[in-house]
Structures are given as C-alpha cells and as structure tokens.
Amino acid sequence: MNIVKIFNALRQGIVPPPNEVPAPILKFAASAISMRGKISNLTSVERTFSALYHHEPDHVPVTPLLCSAARQIQGISFPDLSFDGEKAAEVFYSGWDFVGGDLIVLMLDLSVEAADFGQAMEYPGMTTARPDYSRPVIKNRDGYRKLKPVKLAEARRMQEFLTLCRIMVKRVGFRGLVGGFVFGPAGILSMLCGAENFFKDCLLYPDEVRKACETVTGVLIEYVEAQCDAGVPAIAIDTLYASASGLPKKVWENIEGPFARDISNAIKGKGCMVGIHNCGHSPFADVQLKWTEPDVLSIAHLPDDCRDIVELKEKYGRDVTIIGYIPTQLLIHGTPAEVMDECRRQIDVLGKGGGYIMAPGCEYPPNIPLTNAFAMMEAAKRYG
Amino acid sequence: MDKREYVTIIEEAVLNGDVAEIAAIIKKKSSLSAGTKDILAALSGGIESARNKLHEGVISIPEFLLSIDAFKEGMSRVKSGVAGGVPVFIGVVEGDVHDLGKNIVAAVLSASGYAVTDMGKDVTRDHVRRYIDGRKKAVVALSSMMSTSFGAMKEIISWLGETAPGIKTMVGGASLDLKIAKSMGADGYAESAVTAPEEMKRICKAFKYNENKY
To answer: Reduced to 3 states, what is the DSSP secondary structure of residue A65?
Structure first.
C-alpha cells in the first residue's frame, strides 16, 4: 500500500491507482457500495468499482467507447484527433459529457505507436489514421532484428496521447474512470510490415519476430508507465492477434504472450489495473488470462472455448470483469429498440453478481449517428 | 514417380504452404505424363483442402496464407494458356487499406476457377469503372474492415446498378453483415474467405452467369 501515492492522487482530485489499496479493503468497500446501490444511485466511480470487484451496483456500468465518433460533436477532424492531445481531449470529454458513461477508454486509433516507430502514415480527413503499407519499416526478415527502439520523450504521437491522458484524468476527476490504452507488440509489428507478412513471418522466422517484440516492448513498458504517471488508474492492452483472426494459439503464446505479460506487470507495478481488449473472432481468453492475469477482459466475440454467453460468464466471469460485447454491426444498422434488446440479453446473463461493464465489442463506429450510444445508456438504466 | 503421386505431392505442398517444394516439383513436369490441366487441378485441390481445414479450425489464417503463396507460385508457373472463368474484380473500398481478407478471398476465388483481377486497396468508383472497362457481365467484389468505408461502398454499388446492371456485386469484411450488405443493395455477401466461393457460385447461378463460358 503506497499511502503517499494514494494521498497525492486524492489531493489532485483524481482516482488513485486502485491496486495500491489492499484488496480486502477494496472488496469491503465494493460490498458496502453495492449495498448502498440498492437504496440510492451510485456515482460512476462507485458503480464501476462495485462491478470490478464482482458486486452488483445500482445498474451495470456502461462505456459506449465513443472514441473518434465523438469528434462529430464539435466537428474536430481525424488528423487533429491524431496529432493534438488537447483537441483529442476535447473529443473524448465532449463525448462523455454529451452521451455519458461510467468508464472512458482513451483509444485514439491503433497506429499511435507504429507511427512513432517510423512507419509512414496516412491521415485521411474522414477516417482514422492508418499505415501506408507501400512504405513499410520492416521490409524483410532482417528488418526485425534491425528495428531500433524509440525515445519516448521524442515520440510525437505517444506524447500527445500522454497529454490526452493528463487532461482527461484531471478534467473528469472523481466523476468517472479514465482508462489508458496500448496496442500490443504483435499488433504494432504488423503495422510496420503489413499483417499478411507479419503472420507468415511469425511461422517462418519466429526468433526474428520475437527479437522485434522485445525491442517494441521495451518502449511500451516506458509508455504504459508514463500513462500511469499521468494518472490513469487502468490501461487496456490490445492483444488482437490472440484470436482466430490472428495467430494460432501456441504461436501467439510463443511470440506475444511473454511480452504482453511484461507490459501487464509494468502496469500492475504502478498500482493500476490491467485490461485486455481483443476484438478478433473467437479470442483466446484462456491464454490471454494465463499470460497477463488481467482484471478486465474486453471482447467483441465469444472466446474460442465458449459456446454461448452463459458459458462465458461461468468460465471467465469469476476471474475477470467482462467488458462488451454489443456488436458493431448492430450499432450501425440496428434501431435503438434492437440495440436495447441486445443490451438487455447481455445484462441478464453477464450482469448477475457484478463483474460486467456494458460496452460495444470494439470502438463505437466513427461516422455513424450517436443515437445507439444513447440506447445503450438507456438500456443500462432500464434493465441493469 | 507416377502421375497420381506427382499430383498428390503438389496438393500436399500447397496444403503445407511449401513454396520451394511447389517450384521444384513443377519443374519436373516435363519428364512426367501430368499436363497443365492436372497441375491446375492439383493446385486447386490443395488450396481447397486448405480452405476446408481453415473452416474446420484445423489450420489458422497464417498457415492458410502460406498455402496461398504456394498456390500462387504454382499458378505463376502454369498460368499461360489457361482459360478464365467468370471475371471477378476485387478490391478494398476507398477509406480502408486492410487488404489481408481481400487477398485471401482473391486467392480462394482464383483457385475456384474465377478469373480474378485484384484492384488493390482504397478503390474508388473511378477505379472500378476503369477495371470493368465496358464489360457487360462480371462480379465486382468489395471489402472493407472499417465502417468508415460504407459510404464509398454504397456509392459504388448504386453506381454499378444504374450504369452497368449486368455487373453484380459481392461484399464482405469485418464491419459488415448480411443485413448491411442487403441495405447497400449488394447482390451477395461473403462472411469469410471460407464461404466466398459458395456465395460467388450462388450469385453466378442467380444471374445466369455460365461459369465455364468466359
């Protein structure tokens, strides 16, 4: 228990790193909050903590993961979102202020780290930033060993992201939980050489790929520690390729598993909570939990070893808090009534006994109206 | 080595994603009775077998990609003189550059006998117009992983419907489903590379495209 850290956070008006508080105290507090939730409304922080420690709050917490979709509120462009931490903070804050939510995950786009590793990028006006795959950093097998670490202090986009973290943590204060975000080393490498090449190289040249993972992870550890120092109480690690959309399970364990563990340990070392986000098909929840021992699992699809939502709750609901998994397609195409029906279905199973935060499976689609985000908020209040 | 054994080795080399083996074995062709048709059948058999194993979860996407490389290596060595099937123009729609799924579908359709032309990524209506080049019958296959490309995808489909009604469309990608595909006016929707050949076959049948007559 680091009393100085907790006191400093409280003095600054921000949520302290949760794991600096001994677990029995947190569990007792969560239980007491849950009891109070039966007779009165909870705050967002109370609601989320209650759920995180597997007690039912007044209603399930929600994070609509508005992310870049919230740029529509103030008309901020995608390039500004990528390059300007202050404007990005305007986007995330206005999204939270306008739609609501108990937890705000600061997911900008997946190219932040790759851009700082020197990957040529495109910054289109009407979609998220993306790598220019015609100019990859890693061009061949040797490129993995040649990859050089970057200095965090000189990493423009990661620095802007840290600015975003600092502003949001201060501005939201005790009114909500603000989570950081980092793309895993395998995902970043796939942006430095193209996913197709990366997948094949993982099978053909695993030693080279692991070497590059080591280089990237060194920088990511510094990056997540800086996010924790900026005041976020939790960080999500995106391990996209631990799924049927990515690498075979054993290959993922060999390539990214140990490095994901190192990043997770760095976050925990700062007293913060760890989330795993994976929007791939049939995510390998078992090995991701084995390597990273997260507090939270955010998914877009059922894990490969779960037949249905009931099995998901039974198998993983005790060990982690589940975040998800309202389908993106439903948010795009569904009516608010259909979205609310799906929310109710998930709340009924996943919300029992706490351990559930309702969210889209992946970020809210950037260019669609925000109507269905409101539908999610309403569903949590009505059925949660 | 007899012809049967030779064909089996090609099929297995494709399934195992062994590019070097494919190159070596096809070089031996002249000393055997196997003809171009046999080799093509073996290559297609190998990739079809890999596709089934991907469907069953026996192999993963990276392993399937190696099979595609082996298949392409083989095709590049025997392609000349092969008659094409239904022309398919495939691309990732403007606003998106994720072409992994598109590349896999292109290889699978090619293995299934379609004359596939890869339009690349960030494909606009103008690109499509240039590629179809006045054709009356063809299938334009469009993919997108990002919901941000829906507008561009819908625009291409509407434009084709108005200006080239004989050209049919098939769509796919992580952010789509059948309902969204229908709402865009697409003629078909492939959930994955595994189901793409069946869906393409359905489109050709529905619109009376003779798969053997191109």
So the answer is: coil
**Residue in A with minimal Cα distance to B183:** A333
Whether the complex's predicted ipTM is more than 0.90 is answered with no
Residue range A118-148, pLDDT digits in tens: 999 999 888 889 899 889 999 999 999 999 9
**CA A355 to CA A375: how far, in whole Å?**
21
Question: CB atoms < 10 A from the CB of A379, how many?
Answer: 26
Structure tokens at B26: 């096809």
CATH topology of domain A3-383: TIM Barrel (3.20.20)
| 3-state helix, strand and coil shares in percent for chain A, rounded to the nearest 5 | 55, 10, 35
Amino acid letter, residue A214: E
CA atoms within 13 A on the CB side of A329: 17
* Residue listed under structure tokens 């000393």: B31
pLDDT at B101 over 90: no
Contact A247 B98 (CB under 8 A): no
**Paired tokens of B111:** 């293995």
Number of structural domains, chain B?
Answer: 2
Residues from chain A that touch B65, judged by Cβ atoms under 8 A, are 196, 199-200
Closest CA to A323 of A348, A346, A292: A346
Beta strands across the sheet bearing A103-105: A103-105, A177-183, A234-238, A273-278, A296-299, A321-326, A356-360
- Best mutation site among A332, A362, A370 for testing chain B: the one with the most B CBs within 10 Å? A332
Nearest of A220, A245, A246 to residue A235 by alpha carbon: A220
Tell me, yes or no, whether B100 and B28 share the same domain. no
Residue B61 lies in a domain: yes
Last residue within a domain, chosen from B22, B51, B78: B78
Q: Inter-chain contact A248–B62, Cβ cutoff 8 Å? A: yes
**Which amino acid, residue A219?**
V
Q: Token pair of A12, please?
A: 């600054």
pLDDT at A255: 97
* CB-closest option in A244, A245, A367 to B148: A367
Task: Lowest mean pLDDT of A176-185, A278-287, B89-98, name the range.
Answer: B89-98
Inter-helix orientation angle A257-269/A206-229, to 10°: 20
B211 is a domain residue: no
Contact state of B146 with A127 under an 8 Å Cβ cutoff? yes
Q: What DSSP designation does A126 have? A: S
**Residue A328 contacts B where some CB pair is shorter than 8 Å:** yes
Phi, psi dihedrals of residue B64, rounded to the nearest 5°: -65, -35
Model pLDDT, residue A188: 97
Percent of chain B that is helix, strand, coil (3-state, to 5): 55, 15, 30
Choosing from B47, B78, B109, the residue where a domain stops is: B78
Rounded Cα distance between A85 and A164, Å, is 5
CA-angle at B171, arms to B169 and B172, nearest 5°: 165
Question: Where in chain A are the domains?
Answer: 3-383
Q: Sort strands A130-131 and A321-326 into parallel, antiparallel or unpaired.
A: unpaired
From CA A275, how far away is CA A25, in angstroms rounded? 21
Half-sphere exposure for A148 (CA within 13 Å, toward CB): 4
Contacts B175 to A, Cβ<8 Å: 328-329, 332, 365
